[in-house]
Write a structure and sequence with these properties.
The complex is a heterodimer of chains A (355) and B (389). With 355 residues, chain A is α/β, with parallel strands linked by helices. Chain A has one domain: Luciferase-like domain (TIM Barrel). Chain A is 39% helix and 18% strand. In chain A, the strands form two sheets. Chain A has an eight-stranded parallel β-barrel, surrounded by eight helices. In chain A, strands 5-6 form a two-stranded antiparallel ribbon. In chain A, helix 9 packs across helix 10. Chain B has a single domain, classed as Alpha-Beta Barrel (TIM Barrel), CATH 3.20.20.30. Chain B is globular. An eight-stranded parallel barrel of chain B has the order 1-6-7-8-11-12-13-17, surrounded by eight helices. In chain B, helix 1 runs parallel beside helix 13, helix 3 packs across helix 5 and helix 5 runs parallel beside helix 6. Chain B has 389 residues and is α/β, with parallel strands linked by helices. Chain B is built from 13 helices and 17 strands. Classes of the chains: A alpha/beta (355), B alpha/beta (389). The interface between A and B is large, with 60 and 60 residues.
């Protein structure tokens, strides 16, 4: 079983502390760290901004052996497709998942743009389609869809997009999207349909994933609680004659020793002011991952503990991990160097790499 | 006042010259009835390059040669300009990405965010060629069901929303096409330059929209008198609304050291026309659709293909270009001096910016940048400083 590891890129700031979303490396106005004193000259001027830092995270993920990156659709952050395109040329093999909502516009236009992304990146572009947050957030994004229509629109969006990519005369008349004899020809034809990642825990969300997603992304929770969800999703997909991969979205706080990990977790909790279970013996902690990474829980522990937990998840049927940590650059190197090779080695049956 | 000169990016594939269509850059060419994939320069797959690698070379040639940037077109068969711009942001320095797009295809809140992020990614080098025309079945191909005049009303409203969001703070809007309640761009995406707008469209509905939102009214080359009238009409209309608009011309040029050499390029291409190209021309001449601009181009076209000279409609203006490659029909053909003079003529009748193109776009960016641009005076009537040779 080949595991896939993705690293989540924060589009709305990143830094060393728990208030990472307020810090935008590369951007002086939002840096929060002290500028140099008047006694020291600063060569940077306005040469850099946060995009230069995002570029470094993507390169770190690639050098660190991740299979891909996921670019968050953060209402307060930069736009995920622009970030995806911006990073694609500087990476060689990473799959780049752009997270977005089906409210972004015409499904045909999204598909046509995706075709160019595929052509320019040798097919490395993938979609994570979200539901647009709560009603207030949707309205602020110009989206007045009713709650019960959200998944239906995703269904139509993906259906239309996939068909205009794979066919040359596709007609569809739905509630949300229409197209007449659509489809891309010549070199725009036969491009890879972006793999579709969906999430959600409702019955309807499971049904939709079973019907048309490539990967269903589950939120972090104890492995025993995940098992029935994985079984259910797989069974639903099988009923459609399809295979559905299951991903886990989880944050990591891994250190050389458990003690160091606990210490950093507590300091992080204090900085964030979040309600955080101090002294818990569980490795899986809610409340550590804030709005910044949007994970349901963080795996806190020594390298060995975190590695073993990830292996447990993999053995339970998770094939894709979408990992995150703060700060994203430094932690991408840490996880890439220490955690990923070990988990891969254990899963492949080769055993532990180091004593 | 100075004029701005842009280049065009060939996301539609291109031959190595207009003389024949045998060898293509990018990875495709237009053939009878369909678009045929070619193995040309790049895009071959095994070498790891993609068609974007040649596009990147053209963009760099344009910025090195003195162009502000390039128009990146959007047609059913082209790669999409949002993608090209984002991908090439880090690989160009001064090149400005003129994104052709139809506002109706995007949620304006999404578009505002994309635009602000692209400005951040490029250091403010994005601008728009807002297009609304086309129509009939071709518009439904894109999944767009709005009728012609409604589409311009939608374009206007889309740009209203974009500008509203751009100001920052809470923004609400309840219009015919868009509803936004308490929206806005995140603070760190604010403060970017709003993209300059080059507006395409020839109908009255288009002019009403352009006069409200565009910096430049963009037209294909048309017979000079016709163009003067059109520009005057646009400016009258805008003046009436209390807003100043500038005009721009999108035109292909074939410039050589001598006029004779320039026409030789045209003649060779004309002599090499194959049956498919001739049939395509007949179809073009008979085509219908509700794009007023395309209709104006067609009305100037001869019905027969006897001699390339039949297509000369004005000194140095040839109206048979669509025979040699897809796209607009009229281009300027002549010596370096003549082409520069015709461009200055266009400035005199109201143009303040140009989007130029010539095949192949990479070598021609250098040629035009080195030989023609230094001869263009724009509004400066003093003798241009240049090396003669």
């Amino acid at each position: 079983m080949a595991l896939e590891f993705f690293w989540q890129l924060p589009t709305n700031g990143d830094g060393r502390y728990a208030d990472a979303e307020k810090r935008r490396r590369g951007e002086r106005e939002y840096a929060h760290s002290a500028y140099l004193t008047p006694g020291v000259s600063d060569p940077r001027g306005d040469t850099y901004n946060y995009f230069d830092y995002l570029h470094q995270i993507a390169r770190a993920a690639e050098l660190g052996g991740f299979n891909g990156i996921q670019i968050r659709n953060d209402p307060d952050g930069d736009e995920s497709w622009i970030v995806a395109g911006y990073l694609a040329r500087s990476t060689k093999y990473l799959t780049i998942i752009a997270e977005f909502d089906a409210s972004r516009g015409s499904a045909v236009y999204a598909a046509k743009n995706a075709v160019s992304y595929q052509r320019f990146s040798h097919g490395r572009f993938a979609w994570k389609i979200g539901t647009g947050g709560n009603e207030k957030q949707r309205h602020s994004a110009g989206d007045f869809i009713t709650e019960q229509d959200i998944l239906k629109r995703i269904d139509e969006f993906v259906t239309v997009a996939q068909n205009v990519i794979t066919q040359t005369s596709y007609t569809f008349e739905g509630e949300f999207f229409q197209v007449l004899e659509g489809g891309f020809k010549g070199p725009l034809s036969n491009q890879k349909v972006p793999p579709v990642y969906l999430a959600g825990s409702s019955e309807e969300a499971y049904q939709l994933s079973a019907k048309l997603a490539d990967v269903h992304v589950l939120d972090a929770k104890p492995v025993e609680l995940l098992k029935p969800e994985i079984a259910k999703l797989s069974a639903l997909a099988a009923a459609h004659g399809r295979k559905l991969d299951i991903a886990l979205r989880i944050d990591l706080l891994a250190r050389e020793t458990e003690e160091e990990a606990q210490f950093d977790a507590e300091r992080f909790g204090q900085q964030s002011g979040n309600t955080y279970e101090v002294g818990s013996t569980s490795l899986l902690r809610a409340g550590l991952s804030g709005k910044h990474t949007d994970a349901a829980a963080t795996l806190v522990g020594s390298y060995e503990q975190v590695i073993d937990k990830l292996v447990e998840y993999a053995q339970a049927g998770i094939t894709t991990f979408i990992l995150g940590a703060v700060p994203s650059l430094e932690e991408a190197y840490r996880v890439g160097e220490i955690i990923l090779p070990e988990v891969r080695s254990l899963i492949s049956g080769a055993g532990r790499r180091v004593a | 006042m100075t004029i701005d000169i842009f280049w065009r990016i060939p996301t539609h594939g291109e031959p190595s010259s207009l003389r024949n269509k045998l060898h293509h850059r990018g990875d495709w060419s237009q053939q009878e009835g369909d678009h045929i994939v070619h193995r040309g320069l790049s895009g071959g797959g095994e070498d790891g390059y993609t068609s974007l690698d040649y596009i990147a070379e053209v963009a760099r040639a344009a910025e090195i040669s003195g162009f502000h940037g390039g128009l990146i077109p959007s047609f059913p068969m082209t790669d999409e300009p949002w993608a090209v711009s984002a991908f090439l942001a880090r690989e160009t320095k001064t090149f400005r990405f003129m994104i052709a797009f139809q506002p109706g295809f995007l949620n304006p809140v999404t578009a505002a965010k994309m635009t602000a992020s692209l400005q951040r990614a490029t250091g403010g080098r994005a601008l728009f060629n807002v297009i609304t025309g086309g129509g009939g079945p071709s518009q439904l191909w894109w999944g767009d069901v709005a009728p012609h005049d409604d589409r311009y009303a939608r374009t206007t409203e889309f740009l209203d929303v974009l500008r509203g969001l751009w100001k920052g703070g809470s923004f609400s809007h309840h219009g015919k096409f868009y509803h936004i309640e308490d929206g806005g761009l995140p603070p760190q995406l604010l403060g970017q330059d709003f993209p300059e707008i080059y507006f395409s469209g020839s109908s009255d509905a288009a002019l009403a929209s352009a006069s409200k939102h565009a910096e430049y009214y963009l037209s294909w080359l048309e017979p000079f008198d016709q163009l003067r009238d059109k520009f005057n009409r646009v400016k009258e209309r805008t003046d009436a609304l209390g807003r100043k608009i500038k005009c721009a011309v999108r035109v292909d040029i074939i410039a050589r050291r001598t006029e004779e050499e320039a026409w030789r390029e045209v003649r060779r291409g004309f002599e090499n026309l194959d049956d498919a190209a001739k049939q395509r021309y007949q179809r073009f001449a008979q085509q219908t659709g509700d794009s007023v601009g395309a209709g104006r181009q067609r009305s100037n076209a001869p019905k027969d293909l006897n001699n390339y000279r039949d297509f000369i409609i004005h000194p140095n203006v040839w109206s048979g270009l669509s025979l040699l490659r897809g796209g607009q029909t009229q281009g300027i053909v002549g010596s370096y001096e003549q082409v520069a003079e015709r461009l200055d003529d266009l400035v005199q009748l109201g143009a303040d910016a140009f989007i130029l193109a010539s095949t192949p776009h990479l070598e021609e960016a250098y040629r035009v940048g080195e030989e023609v641009l230094p001869l263009v005076h724009g509004h400066d009537t003093a003798r241009a400083l240049r090396a003669v040779g």
